[in-house]
Amino acid sequence: MVCGSSLVSDTIVSKIFTKKRQSDGYLFPIMEKSIEEASMLFLYLDLNLKLVMCNKALEEITGYTRKEVFKGDWQKLFFGKNSSRREMFKAVLTSCFLNARGHAYEGSIIRKDGTERALSWSNTVITDLSGKPQGIFCIATDVTEYKFATNDVVACSERLKDIFVSIKDYALIATNLANRITYYGSSAATLFDWKSDMILKDISILFPADQGASIISKIKRKITSKGSFEEELTLLRLHGNAFPSMLLVSALVSADNKASGYLYIIRDIAEQKKIEAQMIKNEKMAAMGQLAAGVAHEINNPLLVILGRIDMLAMDDEKLPPTVKKTIDIVTAQAKRMRVIVDRLLLYSRKKPVSKNVVDVNEILQTIPPLVAYYPEFYKITWKEDLEKGLGKVKGDFNQLQEVFLNIAINACQAMIDGGTLTISSFLQDKEFVNIRFQDTGSGVKKDDMGKLFLPFFTTKDTGTGLGLPLCYSIVQAHSGVIEVDSELDKGATFTVKLPAYILKESLKD
Amino acid sequence: MDGKIKILVIDDEVDALELFKDLFTKKGYAVECAPGGIEALEIVDKMLFDAVLLDIRMPVMNGIEVLTKIKQKKPNLPVVMLTAYGYDDTLINKALEQGATGYISKNFPLAQIVYTFQTLLSTIPTKREED
User: Fold this and answer.
1) Residues A381, A366: one domain?
2) Facing residues of A483 across strands?
3) Are A243 and A193 in contact (CB under 8 A)?
4) pLDDT (tens digit per residue) in B49-78
5) Which of A67, A81, B5, B32 has the fewest CB atoms lying closer than 10 Å?
């Protein structure tokens, strides 16, 4: 702490804390040090408003050294030529002395570099034991940033309010130059799940914690070099839920062409990403289909000749020695195995148009359990059905959809070979999609395998061809539907086929 | 005329062609072979047949084109299509529209191919096409 007379510690403050010093001998040095190191400005003025003591924060807040302040007229330095500002301050202090009590006050000072700082003052009159004022202790907090931000908020609200409220598909957020939010539209509150006021919160709350600073600095660099920032980024909702977004940031320029902050324009692209992923998957499946058709065609002809020639040999069965017969049997069995694969490939790749019949999904589903019952190995499985009555119908091919449901049901049963429950349910979703759900309690699907389930030849079964689910995918796609899979390892899997509803049940028609 | 049913088999796969030749010969048919559409049309111009077995997918001139041209020359000559694509509906429908008697999948076992062929022929009058 520095005092006017010697620029070293003086006893003046000890007078302020006389009582304390007497009772708590150790407390005084601690308080003195705390005041010296505090970020708030501490001034002690005598009855003539002469500066007696100040702490280190003075240099930070005013830009003057303490030496300069003690040497010159501190009021002139702090308030400049603006006499009304100085008079106001004087009036406040005089009133404090007259009433022998403190007063809170907000006013600005001029720094050495000419810039203005807004300070929030809290003044306490120091009295002697008889209650006679001896001086005044002034504590000031720098509230410039808050004041400017508040001003920004007011300015922004005037200019942007209507725009922000009008735009629904994009979240708009304005910040000041210090990256504090100064305004945002209702769409931003909705998108980010903001329930409370987010004004003056740091914009870095949008970004993953460890990336905020680097993203903001990247945004600023891009704006400086290219005028704006545009990138796909993962952003966070209030409770940390991440979502993909398209983020566009531009500088906010005031009427006098001065940069006053930034405008963040955000679009949630989760749905778009989902559609893109689906399109890529469809293209991949189409390419696989073409490949499968080509492979099937190329293998089919040689296979025809192999099987045909063996068939012809077998026609002369009685003339053949046993060893040749045995070889023929083995070659026939292996070639027939190839034929099964080729048949399934052809089935998967075929471009069979979907017949446009109106079919009842529940009716198809009811044919599935008897068909699966042909497989004796599934005897330990419990079947449950929860089919919504009066479910909407779909436009499609009875046999093809039956094949899809049968395939998924058999897969589910194979995942529960030691027993379990298969629940088949159907329900209408959003009056638009007929959902058919197969939920098993089997081994589930490994996370790594989820993306490969519908790829041809991908199988986790020893004897599988890996063409069942690709075939299902291809058929459902031809019905303008999708198949969704959800699974937890060792807890089971849920396959949901979603088909566009064609005829809604009576109650939904209005 | 030796009393045998005379057929023309058309397939670009020479081994398959040979197989069908041996098979139908063994089953008592008189068999001529053509490895493509152009050769087939030349043979059809020169010889008389009871039926044609025609591969639907061939290079240069595909099965549908060959079928159309044969039907222009011999409208009553039964033509049975052979398809490696068991479910190639579009081509099969086209062939049926162009007057094909029916189709047989090459994926069938030989006995079934012969049986299906015989069944298809039995549904139409067996009269050798005259010029």
Assistant:
1) yes
2) A497
3) no
4) 999 999 988 888 899 999 999 999 999 899
5) A81
ipTM: 0.82
Q: Distance between CA A22 and CA A28 in Å, rounded?
A: 9
Task: Say yes or no to pLDDT of A340 above 80.
Answer: no
Choose the mutation target among A300, A351, A352, A471 for the interface with B, i.e. most B CBs under 10 Å. Answer: A300
Listing DSSP states for A221-237 in one string gives HHHHHHSEEEEEEEEE-
Q: What is the dihedral of CA A56, A57, A58, A59, to 10 degrees?
A: 80
Query: Within an 8 Å CB–CB cutoff, is residue B110 touching chain A?
Result: yes
CA distances in angstroms from A125 to A16, A47, A98, listed in the order given? 10, 10, 10
Instruction: Provide the residue type at A422 as one letter.
Output: L
Q: What is the dihedral of CA B17, B20, B21, B27, to 10 degrees?
A: 180
Q: What CATH number corresponds to the domain at position A436?
A: 3.30.565.10
Domain C-terminal end among A242, A268, A294: A268
| Distance of residue B108 Cα from the nearest chain A Cα, in angstroms | 9
Nearest to A75 by CA among A58, A90, A57: A90
CATH classification code of B6-122: 3.40.50.2300
Query: How far apart are alpha carbons A504 and A359 in whole angstroms?
Result: 12
From A136, A137, A140, A139, select the one nearest A108 (Cα to Cα): A140
Question: Per the structure block, which two tokens stand in for B79?
Answer: 């033509």
- Quick check: helix, strand or coil at residue A315? helix
Per the structure, how many domains does chain A have? 4
Q: In this complex, which of A305, A311, A346 lies closest to B109 when CB atoms are compared?
A: A311
For residue A484, give every residue at least 6 positions away whose Cβ sits within 8 Å of its Cβ, in sequence order, or none: A495, A496, A498
